[in-house]
Amino acid sequence: MKGISDYAVVYDITSDAKRERVDKVLKGFGFWVQKSVFECRLNKRGRDELIGRLE
Questions:
Q1: Phi first, then psi: what are they for 15, rounded to 5°?
Q2: Could you list the residue range(s) of the whole structural domain that residue 46 is in?
Q3: Is 47 exposed, middle or buried (0-12, 13-18, 19+ CB in 10 A)?
């Protein structure tokens, strides 16, 4: 697909509250692969939106 890229989002967050917030955001953009790993297929707009929500 043109303009679509696959991203592996991997994180190590010790704070439960912060980790739960990140999990909730990522569930809207991709799917859970394993603990603290999500896979997302995004276009540029989706990638930029994901980054904005995580900042």
A1: -75, 120
A2: 5-54
A3: middle
